[in-house]
Design brief:
Strand order of the largest sheet: 6-7-16-15-12-13
Largest sheet: 6 strands, antiparallel
Mean pLDDT: 81
Low-confidence stretches: 1-16, 154-167
Structural class: alpha+beta
Order of helices and strands: HEHEHEHEHEHHHHEEEEHHEEEEEEE
Helix content: 25-40%
Radius of gyration: 22 Å
Shape: elongated
Number of helices: 11
Length: 365
């Protein structure tokens, strides 16, 4: 991006309250243009040409927020962000990067990065809005919510034209216009293939076409002795599969976080997600399935939401289906309760010609 192009993209809004912002980027032109914009809007700016220099300056500059590139010499943006997370856990970071690798974006998301913007910045008001939202959140909340969580914040008191709604619009617009990036992001959000808790082992296998949005699977080991999980077919809604899938991830994580030591109520979980879909204005019905394995009681319960699946153990198999999709009152589907797990079992499903999924949970021998 040339100096002329960068300056042409900058529109200066009204002055705002002064904050200290550190810009970490190895591109001096980008740093200069961004610094000029931020100073014109009333912020104090410190520059660093790489992650190592930024780490040395943090204690001196004491910024309120950091803008960071990912691809830098000496210490990459990802390595810098990891260090910040350990040494300055309350310091918000916004990633601004030209990377096309959605695995990097997903990793940054999991590390608690507050937002990401792509280079070149076509409209600097997006940067201004992002800074305002992140600083507002940091002032009023101690929660380490990632940027997807902020896109879908459900609050009846919020005005529909809030900064969060604007931010959601242009983030989703970017992903919808770049299907490869959307597919890579969703795929990169998948959990580790193998994990364990005590004597129990979890292992899943997922094969899918590179031409469509993927099946997205996630699960959580709970202190109550349960495993809560979901599978969403992101390709099952032509217009809103991406937004809906990200929303499911966000509200599932939020529900689990609020559980503490309580047990999962599948219908309450689905009810919360469907309410979130109605409030977000960006999501459309999708095919999904939700479930919970109770390792203490030795059973599994499954609520289908348009996505057919199969549960099998050492003694029997069960075909489970529910016609109503998530977002179309999936609560009216029949919920299969308390199927035996014994020493383990396998959940499987497939979309002919596009994907095959199986997940096995079993006692280690």
């Amino acid at each position: 991006m040339s100096n002329t192009d960068s300056q042409a993209a900058v529109a200066i809004p009204h002055q705002q309250h002064s904050t200290k912002i550190m810009v970490v980027d190895d591109d001096p032109v980008f740093r200069t243009v961004t610094r000029n914009f931020l100073e014109a809007t009333g912020h104090q700016v410190t520059e660093a040409g790489d992650g190592l220099e930024a780490l040395k300056l943090l204690n001196i500059a004491q910024p309120d927020l950091v803008l960071c590139d990912l691809a830098m010499p000496l210490l990459t943006g990802m390595e810098f962000t990891e260090e910040v997370r350990v040494e300055y856990p309350s310091l918000p970071v916004i990633v601004i990067s030209a990377t096309g690798d959605m695995a990097d974006v997903a990793k940054a998301l999991r590390m608690g990065v507050k937002d990401f913007l792509t280079k070149p910045i076509s409209d600097y008001k997006h940067l201004s809005e992002s800074i305002n939202v992140v600083l507002e959140e940091s002032t009023h909340s101690c929660e380490q919510a990632d940027f997807v969580s902020r896109w879908f914040r459900i609050d009846d008191s919020e005005d529909e034209s809030s900064l969060e709604e604007k931010e959601l619009h242009w983030h989703l617009q970017y992903l919808q216009q770049n299907p490869n990036a959307a597919r890579e992001l969703l795929t990169a959000l998948l959990p580790e293939k193998d994990s364990a808790l005590g004597a129990w082992r979890s292992s899943y296998r997922l094969l899918q076409s590179a031409n469509t949005l993927p099946l997205v699977f996630d699960y959580t080991w709970l202190m109550s002795g349960q495993i809560a999980f979901y599978v969403v077919d992101a390709s099952s809604s032509e217009n809103g599969g991406l937004a809906s899938t990200l929303l499911v991830r966000t509200l599932f994580d939020d529900y689990v976080r609020r559980l503490h030591h309580n047990s999962v109520d599948l219908k309450d979980l689905a009810r919360n997600i469907e309410k979130g879909m109605q409030c977000s204005g960006a999501a459309n019905p999708v095919e999904a399935v939700f479930g919970v394995i109770d390792l203490t009681e030795g059973n599994i319960s499954i609520l289908p939401a348009g996505l057919d699946c199969r549960w099998e153990n050492s003694q029997a198999h069960y075909n489970i289906s529910g016609s109503n999709r998530l977002g179309e009152n999936c609560l009216s589907n029949f919920m299969t309760k308390d199927l035996p797990v014994f020493e383990g079992g396998k959940l499987s499903l497939s979309r002919v010609g596009s994907s095959s999924f199986s997940w096995e949970v079993k006692l280690a021998i």
